[in-house]
Amino acid sequence: MAFAEAGARVVLSARRADELERVRGRMTAGEHLVLPMDVTDYAAIPGKVAQVNAHMGRIDVLVCNAGVSQRSRFAETTLDVFRTIIDVNVMGPAAHIHAVLPAMRGQGSGHIVVTSSVAGKFGIPNRSAYCASKHAVHGLCDALRAEHAPENIHFSTLIIAAVKSSVNANAFRADGSKVGKDSKWGRGSGMDAVAAGRLMVKKLAKREEEIVVVADWRAGIPLYQQRLSPRIVYRRMARLAQSKWWS
Ligand SMILES: NC(=O)c1ccc[n+]([C@@H]2O[C@H](COP(=O)([O-])OP(=O)(O)OC[C@H]3O[C@@H](n4cnc5c(N)ncnc54)[C@H](OP(=O)(O)O)[C@@H]3O)[C@@H](O)[C@H]2O)c1
Hey, what's the torsion of the CAs at 70, 74, 77, 79, to 10 degrees? Predict the structure, then answer.
């Protein structure tokens, strides 16, 4: 919605076509395209990219936002759950970036954005696979930024926290079932997703390498503590892991 407000022609993509149509209905009118897909269907991605290129003529910005989280101890979590999180959060962006790079190189410009999290900057208990996946996208984008800088292709990672969404409800438990319930941020106290989107688009226009949108200052504290002394954060997270209210 924020990209459309800024005048972009937007391709909306996720698995649920009805939800994509609902969002398109709320967007500033434009030549937008709804393209349902599963980001783990890697073989289908080059075909989808070709469809976008045929429809739009070019791809200026790719936003890899699809993601899934976790609420379980590593030792109890099945490797299937661990792998699914990596498949969506790491292989999904890698496959999309791989598919759009030829077009961006051909046109001599591009901006690739991958949604990370504060969990991409420090380890958080009960989110081992999620943390591993979000740390991985920083490594991926940092390496690709260096490789493609001479080609005018820019890479940004979005470090976000506490934006209202269904991320908690959609998070995996140890056995692969979904939590099914929103967190307090997801329900009420988080930042409105549209407001967060507007802020992100504003910052993305500057092509910043890392963009921080942390809606609740408490979620942002470890981000800054970690820069001063990682050990403070390690100890804080160890206490959090033993806390009864942490899930
Ligand atoms: N909300 C926050 O405070 C927060 C904090 C840190 C990071 N993040 C990150 O922000 C991103 C968006 O999450 P959210 O908070 O908006 O959570 P969400 O409400 O659970 O939304 C997840 C989105 O990803 C799509 N998706 C999930 N699996 C997919 C798949 N296999 N293929 C295609 N699309 C898929 C979902 O659409 P379908 O179900 O229709 O496919 C949905 O649009 C994620 O990368 C998440 O890790 C969010």
Answer: 100
Q: How many angstroms is it from 89 CA to the middle of ligand 1?
A: 9
Nearest to 120 by CA among 78, 67, 71: 67
Tokens of 33: 């395209």
Question: Which of helix, strand or coil describes residue 5?
Answer: helix
Residue nearest to ligand 1 atom 20, measured at CA:
167
Strands (E), 11-129: 11-12, 33-34, 61-64, 110-115
CA dist list (Å): 63 to 84, 100, 155, 216: 20, 11, 10, 23
What band does 186 get if pLDDT is binned at 50, 70 and 90? low
Look at residue 147 and tell me whether its pLDDT is greater than 80.
Answer: yes
The answer, yes or no, to whether residue 131 has pLDDT greater than 70, is yes
Query: 22 CB contacts (<8 Å, ≥6 apart)?
Result: none
66 in ligand 1 pocket by Cβ < 6 Å? yes
- For residue range 16-58, list pLDDT tens digits in order: 999 999 999 999 999 999 999 999 999 999 999 999 999 999 9
Could you tell me which CATH class the domain 37-242 is placed in?
alpha beta
| DSSP secondary structure code for residue 192 in this structure | P
Residue with tokens 């056995």: 175
Active site residues: 130
Helix (H, G, I), strand (E, B) or coil at 110: strand
Q: Would you kindly state where each structural domain of the chain is located, as residue ranges?
A: 37-242
Return the closest-CA partner of residue 216 out of 245, 184, 182: 184
